[in-house]
Amino acid sequence: MSTSELPARHGEPPAGHAELMDGVYRWQRHFYDLTRKYYLLGRDRLISGLDVPAGGTVLELGCGTGRNIVLAARRYPGARFFGLDISAEMLETANAAMDREGLSGHVTLARGDATDFDAEALFGLATFDRIFVSYSLSMIPGWEKTVAAALAALSPDGSLHVVDFGQQEALPRWFRTLLRGWLRKFHVEPREALRDVLESESARVGASLRFRTLYRGYTWLAVVKIAI
């Protein structure tokens, strides 16, 4: 059995997907934020809607280069931030960004699998006031498990915030075809069932769901709020 075929232990990233993401981003991480700002729409709207309570805790699943955490930390300076990513390459860039922005003392980053993580072991916290996932579910195999894992790690009265590619419902077919072809080059697949999964998971835990379609279906933005 090769290394990529070995099953991951609880909380450890699966070797095959981790290696794939490291390969994809080994060089891209150096210019990732410069290019993605033009088509990863809705991220700043997600951050502005986090409404983090004073002294609150915020976890990003699939934190990548740390771009979102930096912006969120500026907006909510009293909060503590945590980031999880499966790619060691991306985390290297994210850690450098935290050092550069003077945020190392307020941000903790760890390598792990967003579908199966042990928050207590990684961060010393079992739950968080806010958890967000920005354009990562479309890259995660078994992404439905990430939704369930995130909800399990929410504090009472916490909320899960998700932004990702929609189905481009009101956009021209030629645009959808070009976009899907481009995204496949980076192992990205917009999740057609995202709303259905969020609805079923919200019902399972007794949470409310607010789901918005932006930019003619280019982007889907959702907030799952735990009811207390």
TrEMBL record:
One of its GO terms (molecular function) is transferase activity. It comes from the Bacteria. Keywords: Transferase. Residues 58-158 form the Methyltransferase domain. InterPro entries: Methyltransf_25, SAM-dependent_MTases_sf. Signal peptide: none annotated. The keyword DNA-binding does not apply. This is Methyltransferase domain-containing protein. It comes from Mesorhizobium metallidurans STM 2683.
